[in-house]
Design brief:
Elements: H1 18-26, H2 61-74, H3 77-80, H4 86-91, H5 101-126, H6 138-148, H7 154-187, H8 189-193, H9 201-214, H10 220-248, H11 259-279, H12 286-291, H13 293-296, H14 298-326, H15 334-337, H16 344-375, E1 385-386, E2 395-396, H17 398-415, H18 418-424, H19 427-446, H20 452-474, H21 477-510, H22 516-525, E3 530-539, H23 548-557, E4 559-571, E5 583-589, E6 592-599, H24 607-613, E7 626-636, H25 645-656, H26 661-664, E8 672-680
Parallel strand pairs: 3-4, 3-7, 4-6, 7-8
Antiparallel strand pairs: 1-2, 5-6
Helix pairs in contact: 2-10, 2-14, 5-11, 5-14, 5-20, 6-7, 6-19, 7-9, 7-16, 7-17, 7-18, 7-19, 7-21, 9-17, 10-14, 10-16, 11-20, 18-21, 19-20, 21-25
């Protein structure tokens, strides 16, 4: 993109808070405050500023409880429905372990301590502290590290970028599989009731998935409020079924002792490592939990986990273990084996609803991830709809939603069973967990100032679990893990191509630029240009130099507006920038003004709003008489860039299909003038 054109992917998205809008409108004074210091000290649980989603915590106990309820329906759906298939895959499937007391107790011990160390300790206690002004996920951590560490070597930053892109791409793969395997495993309960319903399992799953993706446009806040009460019933049911089974076989509680996990590996050796690839199914959703932090805030997520989710999961897993000790023949589906026969059909219905909700965690996580990718320059502009004026982070991405729906339906039709999908499930999330552990180490050392001896033991504990799960899942690549890795590789190539293509274009247009002083001096030295009434707004990527659209406009039309604004919308490494800190205005003389706007990577730029804020600087812009000049480029692949030709073609394709800049920036379509040019990449 040339400097005058709004850069696909450089602006920030999310709804403005009412507080910011009020403050900006009422300011009545220059808004020239410097950009906020990116990041914050993650070593404490304080609020993260007026714009942070974490500020939900300050709204009182009622607000926190409401968000905790909604979090049950969005954040914990994936982990909460793992009992449907986690234990079953350990004892019934292509890599099943023999049904013996030692193996049952060992698997239960592994599940328990995986939930404690990986989810409770790593994610709920520590990773939720490693946020960027309330936002989680690998891109938020990447921004935080980049903002706080200007001294990091170029190679070190390249490593951080690679880790973030790879982790994000893998999360997309899991985001496709999670809805498919969750809903399909619930619908398979029909086959437990009667084999006559087997032909309806796959069509029913497809129908449920279509319905799930169709309701996404209503937003995660509304969905969470509807799903929350259902998930309360779900977790209470999990706990109740587990308690009833444990009461009949109380000796199963001995699996709380981690020695049973050690003994399991001592007796099963390599086969034990293979089964560990099924145990991972009990903690899938941990990474989505972290990515969804911006939707609800830290405290509600922790409250939900400690008071409801963790206790219910453990009771149900131990209940399934108790059932297998007494009735090993029910290993083909121990979850539904806990259900009394008279309640089987209602349980299938409840499970289906719960798995629909489970899919919401990954869908919301993918939304947040894509939004951050757009703003950080790893993805072209896409349509992002803010679904709540009160809660930041509540978004809906129609294009991403439709693509995920098609991919999920394709998976169900291709694999046809949850056991088949289980082979493809897990490898991506284990790599993501490993990447998160490494990022946590860098955050603790570089941002929080932890000593090596304080950070290293904790990270080694995390990596012990992460790498063990990763090693066991590598054995599943041939059985279906290749699908997730293929999806991740394609997405990673697209992200890297977009980033590199933008950098190459930046170099091309840098050489075409003209210092603004030279342009203004040329106006004075020669015959004064004809000035017409109104305002001309020339959008520019660069906050320096003369926009090429301005040069073209003046060259061909020989006129200038009475008031000329050079508008640049820049990005920060923080999720949110308040209205007070958003705008700087500099008078260049001769009726020219340079406006530099700053948005966080979870905010939506809005040009008319920026011009209203500019009134505080004495700039009065009548939108009815203003003209907005944007550049439209045709990219040619025969230029001097060192990118391979196929990558240039891919970049050009992505650029052509980026979301319309006029709509993305909220500019009235009737006031836009586009100037085209051809650029060799």
């Amino acid at each position: 993109m040339p400097p005058e054109s709004p850069p696909p992917g450089d602006a920030r998205t999310s709804a403005e808070s009412p507080e910011d809008k009020t403050a900006g409108a009422a300011a009545g004074k220059p808004l020239d405050a410097p950009a906020p210091q990116a990041g914050h000290d993650g070593g404490h649980d304080g609020a993260h500023g007026e714009n942070a989603p974490g500020a939900h915590d300050a709204h009182g106990t009622g607000r926190t409880m409401g968000l905790a309820l909604a979090a049950l329906g969005v954040v914990y759906g994936d982990i909460g429905t793992s009992p449907l298939y986690a234990v079953k895959e350990c004892f019934h499937g292509p890599h099943a372990i023999a049904l013996s007391t030692v193996n049952i107790m060992g698997v239960l011990s592994l599940i328990l301590w995986s939930l404690i160390i990986v989810v409770s300790v790593k994610y709920v206690v520590f990773m939720l502290r490693a946020d960027n002004k309330g936002e989680g996920g690998v891109f938020a951590l990447l921004s935080l590290l980049n903002a706080k560490n200007d001294t990091t070597s170029r190679r070190g930053k390249a490593v951080f970028v690679f880790m973030a892109i790879f982790g994000a791409a893998l999360l997309y793969g899991d985001g496709i599989i999670t809805p498919a395997i969750s809903v399909l495993s619930a619908m398979e309960g029909l086959g437990v009731a009667t084999h006559a319903l087997d032909p309806f399992i796959v069509p029913g799953t497809c129908l449920v998935l279509i319905s799930l993706f169709m309701v996404q446009k209503h937003g995660t806040d509304r969905i969470g409020k509807v799903f929350g009460p259902i998930m309360i019933l779900w977790f209470l049911t999990l706990a109740g079924l587990g308690v009833a089974s444990i009461a009949r076989q109380p000796e199963v509680l001995a699996a709380l002792n981690p020695w049973f996990a050690v003994r399991f590996f001592a007796e099963n050796h390599l086969h034990g490592m293979i089964v560990l690839g099924s145990v991972i199914l009990c903690i899938t959703g941990g990474e989505a939990l972290y990515a969804d932090m911006g939707h609800f805030g830290r405290r509600p997520i922790r409250l939900s986990w400690c008071c409801m989710v963790m206790p219910a999961l453990m009771l149900n897993y131990f209940g399934q273990g108790a059932l297998l000790l007494a009735q090993p023949d029910l290993a083909f589906n121990p979850f539904y084996g806990l259900v009394p026969e008279s309640l089987l059909y209602p349980m299938v219905a409840l499970s289906t609803m719960a798995t629909v909700i489970a899919s919401q965690a990954m869908i919301s996580g993918v939304y947040s991830l894509t939004q951050q990718a757009v703003q950080l320059g790893f993805c072209p502009r896409i349509r992002i709809v803010n679904t709540s004026a009160q809660t930041k982070g509540q978004i809906y991405l129609p294009g991403v939603n439709n693509a995920m729906m098609v991919a999920c339906l394709g998976l169900v039709l291709a694999f046809k069973s949850s056991s088949g999908l289980a082979a493809a499930y897990g490898i991506a999330v284990t790599i993501d967990m490993t990447i998160s552990s490494l990022f946590f180490f860098f955050v603790a050392r570089m941002l929080w100032g932890w000593s090596l001896w304080k950070a290293l033991p904790l990270v080694c504990l995390f990596l012990l679990f992460d790498l063990s799960f990763l090693g066991s899942n590598l054995l599943k690549i041939a059985d279906g893990g290749w699908f997730t890795l293929t999806v991740a590789a394609l997405i990673m190539i697209a992200m890297a191509t977009w980033r590199d293509g933008k950098a190459a274009l930046g170099k091309q247009f840098q050489a075409m630029g003209l210092p603004i002083d030279l342009f203004l001096n040329s106006l004075v030295a020669g015959k004064p240009p004809v000035r017409i009434s109104g305002t001309g707004v020339f959008m520019s990527v660069s906050p320096a130099g003369t926009p090429i659209t301005l040069l073209h406009h003046y060259k061909h039309n020989k006129v200038l507006h009475e008031q000329v604004l050079l508008l640049s919308i820049g990005s920060t490494d923080t999720p949110f920038v308040s209205a007070r800190q958003r705008l700087t205005v500099t008078s260049l003389g001769h009726g020219f003004y340079r406006i530099i706007a700053r948005y966080g990577f979870m905010q939506t730029p809005n040009v008319p709003e920026l011009l209203r804020l500019a009134k505080g600087h004495g700039l009065v812009v009548d939108m009815q008489s203003a003209s907005f000049y944007l550049g439209r480029e045709s990219l040619l692949t025969s230029g001097p860039s060192r990118m391979m030709r196929w990558r240039k073609s891919l970049f050009a394709f992505m650029s052509r299909n980026a979301w319309n800049a006029t709509t993305f920036f909220g500019i009235p379509p009737g006031r836009v003038v586009e100037l085209g040019t051809q650029v060799e990449l």
